[in-house]
Design goal:
This protein has about 625 residues and is mainly α. It is rod-shaped, with a radius of gyration of 40 Å.
Length: about 625
């Protein structure tokens, strides 16, 4: 009697193409560089000559009062009355100059301060006030000259060193700024402003640990009004990679300023770094509610939402980001990632293409577009993109790896080995690279090198179930049954729901005629997946070999349900019906098999079998 037709042993290996996602760009908010010039507010110390009349003193006091109240025109009128009476009153020129500055009339302010200096070349306060105006006008050279003259006249005045340090900051001359802020601290060791300013300079000099120390001292001296200090210390912690401390500082700043949108934005970025995507999305949402309406924040929130698999909302955010800034390549890229994840590769390719046009030197964009082309089975364009990624970044291991994947898919295993080898050279501790090169060696029948690569992958990642499965396949090809079974069993222990491992071990048991073990493994495969006709076919054949025809029958019926147009399936079930003595059913199945049989020799044998069985019915 003819034998059952079985599916040959199948080697199962997996190739995985990489999709590289961009993390949030840490574009933190900082404080302004320069120390602001204060408007006249406190009671000025005015040197009033003894011979000054009571009426003049009253005018001075009235002018000061109006200045404090912000009634600058009335203050100017009072000071002008004094100067009409006392045209050489230096202090009043300075006071009126300050009020003009507060009013925004810098021309008259400088005119008054020039007059004060001409009357008294040793008036340090007038030099300071004039320097403040030059600083706000960004005339930094004149500001530096005036602050330096004031320091010459008042070398013990910490505020002057603070102010001149601010000008050096505005000129990006951080070393000189650092010297001035340090001098200010020496002169006024309890002034938090100087510590804050020095911390800012140290931050810009990339001395982040020292910056943190200065900011910390400023907080100690000014604990209840330290929003900017916490914000900037948090920024320094970011540069140090200490995202927990950065988030804590931003939280402190939020407690002190709960409506400051920019701090929520910064904390949101930290939460993303800490994989607290729900917290990040909440902070970005709060920042948006408080008034930040930028492309960058919608991009950041979209990334946080996508990381929570809230892809619909993420897609909306990336689209808004693009509407706000059509040059936001990150938004195009990340929207492309979502489209790719939804298998909408045409839209993904369109977005990746736009990202590439805006940022043609970013290898990850080519890499992901290449993956989309690969998924569409457009291997030529995929290889072109991975090659472009390599041209942009010759040390991009993922691009070599991905190009190797495409070469393997095209059965160009020798070229795949070259690409995988380059990827391994660039990133020697990536287990997937060894696994895939091992697969390529396997397919050119170089089983020893395949086993060596799989072994290296397993050493780098001992819980890498796929590697044990693949190495077991290589051992099987070498006829090393002991290691074959050991590796399949290891794969199953690491991935108890990996159907391929059970299937391959079941086939191995079948070849060893360990039928009970084979049936157990094949049954496990069918618990995990019910769409594998070959597994039903093999288990049915084993049942039949053991004369368990009642168990074999439903398996071959399942095969027919899954593959209703294959001759062998009807043929195999016909044999079972024959063994069960159900001759009419056997004849029916053999006749069905003839409808799909393409092999003339098999057709002839089946026709002869039908004729013989038909005689038995007579």
């Amino acid at each position: 009697m003819p034998k059952f037709k079985l599916t040959p042993f199948v080697i199962v290996s997996v190739l995985v193409a990489l999709g590289i996602a961009i993390g949030p760009v840490l574009s933190l908010f900082d404080q302004s560089k320069s120390r602001p010039t204060e408007a006249p507010g406190g009671t000025p110390v005015v040197r009033i000559p003894p011979e000054t009349s009571k009426e003049t003193v009253n005018l001075i006091n009235r002018g000061n009062t109006f200045a404090r109240q912000g009634d600058y025109d009335q203050a100017i009128a009072e000071y002008s009355q004094i100067l009409a009476l006392l045209p050489k009153f230096v202090e009043v020129y300075r006071l009126r100059g300050r009020v003009y500055a507060a009013k925004g009339d810098t021309a008259h302010a400088i005119e008054d301060l020039n007059k004060a200096i001409s009357l008294n070349a040793a008036d340090a306060d007038s030099y300071q006030d004039r320097a403040n105006i030059y600083n706000t006008q960004r005339d930094y050279l004149k500001a530096l000259a005036d602050y330096s003259k004031a320091i010459e006249l008042k070398p013990g005045n910490a505020t002057l060193f603070n102010d001149r340090g601010g000008v050096y900051v505005n000129r990006n001359d951080y070393e000189k700024a650092l010297a001035d802020f340090s001098k200010a601290i020496d002169l006024a060791p309890n002034d938090p402003t100087a510590y804050f300013n020095r911390g800012f300079v140290l931050y810009n000099l990339n001395q982040y640990d020292k910056a943190v120390a200065s900011f910390t001292k400023a907080i100690e001296l000014k604990p209840d009004d330290s929003v900017q200090i916490y914000l900037n210390r948090g920024n320094a912690y970011v540069k140090m990679g200490d995202y927990n401390k950065a988030a804590n500082d931003y939280s402190k700043a939020i407690e002190l300023a709960p409506t400051n949108a920019r701090i929520y934005y910064n904390r949101g970025l930290m939460y993303e770094q800490l994989d607290n995507f729900q917290g990040a999305a909440a902070d970005f949402t709060k920042a948006i509610e408080l008034g930040i309406n930028t492309s960058a924040i919608y991009t950041a929130r979209g990334q946080a939402l996508a990381s929570q698999r809230n892809y619909d909302q993420a897609l909306t955010d990336f689209t808004i980001a693009i509407q706000l800034d059509s040059n936001n390549y990150e938004a195009y890229y990340n929207r492309g990632v979502i489209y790719s994840g939804r298998n909408d590769y045409d839209k993904a390719i369109a977005d990746y293409t736009q990202a590439i046009a805006l940022s043609p030197k970013t290898p990850g964009f080519y890499n992901n577009r290449g993956f989309a082309y690969f998924s569409k089975k457009d291997h030529d364009k995929a290889i072109a993109d991975f090659t472009a990624a390599i041209q942009v970044d010759p040390n991009n291991a993922e691009a070599y790896y991905n190009r190797g994947v495409v070469q393997s898919e095209r059965a160009n295993f020798s070229q795949a080995i070259i690409d995988y080898s380059k990827a391994i050279t660039l990133s020697p501790n990536t287990p997937g690279f060894y696994n895939n090169r091992g697969f390529a060696y396997f397919n050119i029948n170089d089983f020893d090198r395949a086993i060596a690569d799989y072994t290296q992958a397993a050493e780098l990642k001992p819980d890498y179930a796929l590697t044990y499965l693949n190495r077991g396949n290589a051992y099987a090809k070498k006829g090393d049954t002991e290691n074959t079974l050991s590796d399949y069993s290891k794969a199953i222990a690491l991935a108890p729901n990996e159907a391929n491992a059970y299937y391959n071990r079941g086939v191995t048991y079948y070849r060893l005629q360990r039928y009970d073990a084979a049936i157990a493994d094949l049954s496990k495969v069918l618990e995990l997946r019910q769409d594998l006709a070959d597994v039903y076919n093999l288990r049915g054949a084993i049942y039949a070999d053991q004369k368990l025809y009642d168990l074999a029958l439903p398996d071959f019926t399942a095969v027919i349900n899954l593959q209703p147009e294959q001759a062998r399936n009807y043929y195999n079930r016909g044999l079972i019906y024959y063994r069960l003595g159900k001759i009419p059913d056997a004849i029916t199945d053999f006749q069905h098999s003839l409808q799909f049989e393409k092999d003339p020799a098999q057709q002839k044998d089946t026709e002869a079998l039908i004729a013989e069985l038909s005689k038995q019915l007579k």
